[in-house]
Sequence to fold (74 residues):
Amino acid sequence: MVGIPRCYSHFVFGVVQFGSTSGVASAIASLPLGTTGHFVIHWLQSWLVSWLLMLPIVIFAAPMIQRLVHAVTS
Fold:
């Protein structure tokens, strides 16, 4: 395993969680292009753009979301 310190775990979680979520979302959005033969190219482009634009938001929002979740749950 990679020796990333646990204090950075929310960053690692954000990268893994958002990578998988954006991959699935962009694949679903690209499904109509499956019949034209451009699915893979479009999917990779849309995934990369969404990942680059949203990753910083996810990383910085994760601690606030975690505090909110802890506040509203018992």
User: Anything to note?
Assistant: The CA atoms of residues 45 and 54 lie 14 Å apart. Residues 22-65 form one domain. DSSP finds two helices and no strands in the chain. Residues 39-72 form the longest helix (34 residues).
